[in-house]
Design goal:
Radius of gyration: 22 Å
Oligomer: single chain
Number of domains: 2
Structural class: alpha/beta
Helix content: 25-40%
Strand order of the largest sheet: 2-8-7-6-5-3-4
Strand content: 5-15%
Order of helices and strands: HEHHEHEHEHEHEHEEHHHEEHEEHEH
CATH topology of the largest domain: Aspartate Aminotransferase, domain 2
Shape: globular
CATH superfamily of the largest domain: Type I PLP-dependent aspartate aminotransferase-like (Major domain)
């Protein structure tokens, strides 16, 4: 499938401001179809599920379509395994509180240095309350990767949980999670995979990843601010005890969802997945199911992003005074199109502010990957953190060129000598 980036960009109203949007790792813009879907729910009436009147029935269908959409996007076999919540952080805390009651003294859990705090601290806190040991898999400082053996060497018959990222939102590197989850399953441990930064840049086939739970945030893949935890086996949900109001009973994902569903946002989730299946058009291909269209369209989008990433990487390497954080050299199929870098001894904030004045949106800091930043020694002093530029499917060659020109200009004006970070 060809990828027509001009047609894709035409569907994103926010991109008309003329700025370069390379901040997608912190959240993407939304296409017109998502805006319309959210607005339509408000326009046609709100209510709640379970009543006899039409709007209530229609909102029940919105929820069902959103669960099916996420299942389609991730290749999950059953929409009954899709649990919605306000954010990846909130859902991970929710599942930590549901899994921890099954832990006992002498048990262990495994977390990693590569992870975003959202897939680290909820588990650490749950382990502290349960009185179980936390073991931390160390990233390779030189390569910015998480070797499989860094996790597997910590596993034993005492391991109850392995929490690992599918892609680092600071370094971009992607561990071999299928091997890690297989090893976790081999010792009887549950695996919880953070896919927040992975899902926007991959063709996800959840069964192949082997995770018991996979969490993703829709606002990272062109949808509303909403997240989902997905399991390939809905029976796993039924086996967990979770706090909710007394009328909320029975099996399925509803037990994990607190209060009234955000119906407009759920309609936006459905629209975002349909957009990903046909990103350059509002008309789906005739006779081809959404799941199949997603595979073709996502494959083309990933190829487009990788091409831009190669240009970005080569350009940054060619600018004197720019130091890329480890992970930039990872194989193309083991990293996302996200790069963090530093400019000599300059504060990342100052660099990001200069780029903002040049019309370019990038992030700076540790990107909530606190453990990874600490492992790399970039958490202390005025020049802590890094500048992060992240490519998404609506970015262009011109976007990359504008960033490189602006970084080069900043270096020429401000850098007096190359300093190691």
């Amino acid at each position: 499938m060809d990828f027509d980036v001009a047609a894709v960009r035409a569907r994103y109203p926010a991109l008309a401001d003329g700025r370069v949007w390379l901040d997608g790792a912190a959240g993407t813009q939304v296409p017109d179809a998502v805006i319309d879907a959210v607005s339509e729910v408000y326009r046609t009436g709100l209510g709640n599920q379970g009543a006899a009147f039409p709007v209530s029935q229609r909102l029940g269908e919105v929820v069902a379509r959103a669960r099916q959409a996420v299942a389609d996007l991730l290749g999950a076999p059953d929409p009954a395994g899709v649990v919605f919540g306000p954010s990846t952080t909130a859902l991970t805390y929710r599942f930590a509180s549901a899994l921890a009651p099954g832990w006992r003294a002498g048990d262990e859990i495994v977390v990693t240095e590569l992870d975003h705090e959202a897939n680290l601290w909820p588990w650490v806190r749950a382990a502290e309350r349960a009185g179980v040991r936390v073991r931390t898999a160390r990233l390779d400082r030189a390569s910015g990767t998480l070797p499989v053996e860094a996790v597997t060497e910590l596993l034993s018959e005492r391991t109850r949980l392995v929490a690992v990222t599918a892609a680092s939102n600071l370094l971009g590197t992607m561990p071999d999670v299928a091997s890690i989850t297989a090893a976790a399953r081999g010792v009887g441990a549950v695996s919880y995979l953070d896919g927040a930064h992975h899902c926007p840049h991959a063709v996800v086939a959840l069964p192949a990843l082997g995770a018991d739970f996979y969490v993703t945030s829709a606002y990272k893949w062109y949808g509303p601010h909403l997240a989902a935890v997905v399991t390939t086996c809905p029976e796993l949900l039924d086996g967990l005890a979770v706090d909710n109001l007394r009328p909320v009973t029975g099996p399925g994902p509803v037990r994990f969802e607190l209060g009234t569903n955000p119906f407009p946002a759920l309609a936006g989730v459905d629209a975002a997945v349909s957009h990903l299946a046909d990103p350059g058009s509002s008309a789906p291909a005739n006779g081809v199911g959404r799941g199949a269209r997603l595979v073709g369209a996502r494959t083309a989008a990933v190829a487009h992003e990788r091409d831009l990433a190669a240009r970005l990487l080569a350009g940054l390497r060619g600018i004197e005074g720019v130091e890329l954080l480890p992970g930039a050299d990872a194989p193309v199929d083991r990293r996302t199109p996200t790069f963090s870098f530093r400019v000599g001894g300059h504060e990342p904030r100052a660099v990001a502010e200069a780029l903002a004045r040049a019309g370019i949106n990038v992030w700076h800091g540790h990107a909530y990957a606190v453990a990874a930043a600490a492992a790399l020694g970039i958490t202390e002093g005025d020049a802590a953190g890094a500048v992060r530029a992240s490519v998404n499917h609506y970015n262009t060659v011109e976007d990359v060129s504008r960033l490189l020109t602006a970084v080069s200009g900043y270096v020429s004006e401000n850098t007096t000598g190359r300093r190691p970070w």
